[in-house]
From TrEMBL:
Belongs to the PTH family. This is Peptidyl-tRNA hydrolase. It catalyses: an N-acyl-L-alpha-aminoacyl-tRNA + H2O = an N-acyl-L-amino acid + a tRNA + H(+). The record marks N13 as: Discriminates between blocked and unblocked aminoacyl-tRNA. The gene is pth. It is an enzyme of class 3 (hydrolase). The record marks D103 as: Stabilizes the basic form of H active site to accept a proton. One of its GO terms (cellular component) is cytoplasm. Signal peptide: none annotated. Coiled coil: none annotated. The keyword Transferase does not apply. It comes from Ornithinimicrobium cerasi. TRNA binds at Y18, Y76, N78, N124. Keywords: Cytoplasm, Hydrolase, RNA-binding, tRNA-binding.
Amino acid sequence: MDTAPWLVVGLGNPGARYAGHRHNVGAMVVDELARQASATLRAHKAGQAWAAEVRLGTGAGGLPGSRAVLARPSTYMNLSGGPVAGLAKFYKVPVDRVVVVHDELDIEPGQVRLKQGGGEGGHNGLRSVSQSLGTRDYLRVRLGIGRPPGRQDPADYVLSDFPSRDREETDLLVGDGADAVLDLTGLGLVAAQQRWHSR
């Protein structure tokens, strides 16, 4: 059903106190895609999300790119699934066109990986999305933040800001995440994986 838009959801926690946290890098990517599309995310009538309808990037021959809905849940991370399922239903988006962008402890900092389906790896946002969609077979853009140093608790690590000294690396990760979404929606999963996983 190629007439359906893509639904690209960036996971994170709402509010200024969480904005710079590692756990919010998925939301940062969606904000970057909205910026590139000159769009503003607004409260959506389907509930509990900020969203914008856009054209992603540029398609073949310089034509407008894929139709998409960019979204950030306005709930806390562990309740992300309700907003994702609500938007998918509202826009009639099949699960194979749902793209969830999220932080990933088990990937080296700065690396981007793409996959469809699989487990949640202890990520509460993904667990909520899987439960609400009734499947794990949605697409994921996984943004590497690495494991915490020493004995730091992973929960404390993801709920802390990217260090200011790593600002450039953070901006690169967000930019790469946005580019990976464009490749995924424009080229398909296999071609996008080949591009990003060979880096």
